[in-house]
Amino acid sequence: MKDIVDGIADEFSCESHGSSDLWKNTVYVRGNSDEEFVPFDYLSKKENIEKVSDLQKKGYVVSSLTYLELTSFDDWYQKVFNRKLSQKDKKNIDIVHYPDTKKVHEAVEIVDQVYRILKDHKILVNGKNLPVQLGEWYAKSVFGLHQKKSSSQRGFDFYTEDDKKVEVKVHWHDITSTKGVKLKRSLIEMSDYTVIMYIAKNFTIRDILLLDSDFVIRKFAGKGHTIFLKDTDVLSYFFSKSNKHYAKIINRSALMKFSNADFAIKVDEKTDEKKD
To answer: 243 or 149: whose pLDDT is higher?
Structure first.
């Protein structure tokens, strides 16, 4: 079935269909690559496939276009139908695609092995997801934080060597949302310092932000229970921009080892500046 679908998607993608009304379809089937798709209605007539579930029975899965973040689909859509895909229409589109279950299974086995290693080394110790726990561990390693059992229901809190409480927030993405990083006002108010670990999608540190918590409350807190720290508002405080808090780095080798190349270079330059 997959070979047939791939062939039809390839054939369909090589021609213009601007004169048809197939652009109105809300379900598209991915072919062999992110540059090849075919409207389900077209495929249905071509191969007498009545329902999407007929494909799902053969191993296909369905995901919304916005979830998949398939930027190539916009270009494909404009090329094939000679019209731009509106944001409104994009939200209603589903993509039927075929995952390579063999590779997925291999990846699951690798992830399981990785989780076991991280658990053995006491990095993963509870139900939090990997990026959060890894980011917290990075913060604990870099700043020499002590992780103590919380008196509340949070689980654990972080403290400096001189017993100053630190609120650690992990942001996992290659870029920050325009809204900023979401913080709970109550947790900031209970801490002395606020540390945000910006973790890239490949699990390396892409930047760090360390601020006095009373400064965060005074400068950025509104009337609600939530604080949003936008990159543009705190840009000058990032470790990649300023070495003001470099004295708080306890384990520089850990910082350099787990940072991505770009951030590591900036930290190294700023460290040399501080020595001078």
So the answer is: 243
pLDDT, tens digit (0-9, with 9 covering 90-100), for 156-187: 788 888 889 999 999 999 999 999 999 999 99
What is the average per-residue pLDDT within 115-122? 86
The whole-angstrom distance between residue 211's C-alpha and the CA centroid of its chain comes to 23
User: Phi and psi for 188 in degrees, rounded to 5?
Assistant: -70, -40
Domain 107-275 carries which CATH code? Answer: 3.40.210
The ranges assigned to domains in the chain are 2-99, 107-275
Q: State the pTM of this model.
A: 0.70
Q: How far is Cα 266 from Cα 179, in angstroms, rounded to an integer?
A: 25
| Size of the chain, expressed as the number of residues it contains | 276
Placement of tokens 């939090």 in the chain = 128
Could you tell me the two tokens for 204?
A: 């390396």
Q: What is the mean pLDDT of the segment spanning 103-111?
A: 85
Helix (H) or strand (E) holding 161: none
Q: Residue 245 contacts by C-beta under 8 Å, 6 or more apart in sequence?
A: 210, 239
In whole angstroms, give the CA distance from residue 31 to residue 139. 43
User: Are residues 38 and 14 in contact, defined by beta-carbon separation less than 8 angstroms?
Assistant: no
Residue 116 dihedral angles phi and psi, to the nearest 5°? -65, -45
